[in-house]
Structures are given as C-alpha cells and as structure tokens.
Specification:
Elements (H helix, E strand, L loop, with lengths): L1 H20 L9 E5 L1 E3 L5 E9 L4 E2 L1 E7 L2 E7 L2 E6 L5 E6 L5 E2 L4 E11 L5 E7 L20 H10 L24 H8 L1
Antiparallel strand pairs: 1-11, 2-3, 3-10, 4-9, 5-8, 5-11, 6-10, 7-8
InterPro entries: CBM2/CBM3_carb-bd_dom_sf (IPR008965), CBM2_carb-bd_dom_sf (IPR012291)
Keywords: Signal
GO molecular function: hydrolase activity, hydrolyzing O-glycosyl compounds; polysaccharide binding
C-alpha cells in the first residue's frame, strides 16, 4: 500500500513537471539558423553538417533540424537525438554532456552521418541557446510592516550550515507569548 502511494505521488509529480515544461517561454532564447551542407552523398546515406558562427556564449543547446526527405537514422558527433517526427523529416538534437559550452565568436560545425530514403537531401537546423533562463523569481514580500524581511532571514538560516544566533533578528521584537529566546535557532536545529 505504501509503495503504491509513493508510486502514485511520483507519477503525479512527473506529470506536473512535464506539463510545466511545455509552458517555458522560448522568446528570450537566442537562435541561429544554418542550411544543411551535404558531403559524401550515397544511394541511401550521406554525411552532412550545420555550420554556425556563435554570436554569444552558449551553455547548452537544442537544435531542431528539418529535412526534405525521410531521414531514418542520424549519428551526430556533437549532439544526441532526443526525438523525431514519424515521417523522419524533423529531428531534435541536444548537446552531449561533455560538449555543451561554446564561447561567443566560436565557429561550430555540427557534423553527422544519416540514412535516408528519397531524393537528394536538403534541410536546415535552428539552434537555440539553452543558457538563457527565461524565469525570474520575485523577491519575497515584506508584509509584516517591519524593516526586516523575515522570509529572507529564515531562508538564510535554513539554507546555511554555519551556526547562527539571534543576532540577525531585531532585539526589540518579541516572539509569540511575549518572551524572547536568544538561542531559538539552536533549539530548532536540535529538532531537525
């Protein structure tokens, strides 16, 4: 029973995470487009490349390639395929974990081998810089009408491993019940 509950909670959390990723704003990400350069064209395979001159630092990337033919497999040296359309004309790639950082001004050639069916291949790839974080975290509101933001003070106490005393709290404010406790953080730390 307990295992089923944990599995159910994990499934709900995973669903909520995936659903929230669909809402990630993409408008603030830098993107570049490159045309496919085909080399070593064979009857059912080819070698290709998408060449970019990066205009800013890239810390992780995602590329969406579109082809005019059915591409049945791709082996990209600088990235991994994460998905493709059922007709094989659209492929999504991400950086390999050891090839994710490129400084501005770098020329990057995303080379690959592919198998295809149909006429001579052509295409393009849109490269997105995943190093842009489109989310912002607002400052915690100070709604207790004091000059101190207790949310920030408590957060700094909870997130630090360094022992702290009551020195960060104002000495004039009493705790509930009217008493003052100079070593409250030590008492809490002892219970956790």
């Amino acid at each position: 029973m307990r295992l089923q509950l944990k599995s159910c909670l994990l499934a709900a959390l995973l669903y909520a995470t995936v659903a929230s990723l669909e809402d990630v704003p993409k408008s603030k990400r830098d993107s570049l487009t490159a045309t496919l350069q085909v080399s070593n064209l064979q009857k059912d395979s080819f070698e290709g490349a998408f060449d970019y001159k990066l205009t800013e630092d890239y810390v992780g990337w995602q590329g969406t390639a579109t082809f005019n033919v059915d591409v049945t497999s791709v082996n990209m040296y600088e990235g991994d395929s994460v998905s493709h359309s059922s007709d094989g004309k659209t492929w999504v790639f991400v950086n390999k974990n050891y090839k994710s950082v490129y400084p501005a001004g770098t020329s990057v050639d995303f080379r690959f081998q592919a198998k295809y069916t149909g006429s001579d291949p052509s295409g393009q790839m849109v490269l997105e810089n995943m190093g842009h974080d489109p989310w912002t975290v607002p400052e915690a509101p100070n709604t207790d009408d004091s000059k101190y933001n207790y949310n920030d003070i408590i957060l700094s106490h909870c997130s630090s491993t360094k022992p702290r005393d009551r020195e960060n709290f104002p000495q004039t404010n009493a705790y509930p019940g009217g008493e003052t406790r100079p070593s409250m953080t030590r008492e809490i730390r002892g219970r956790i």
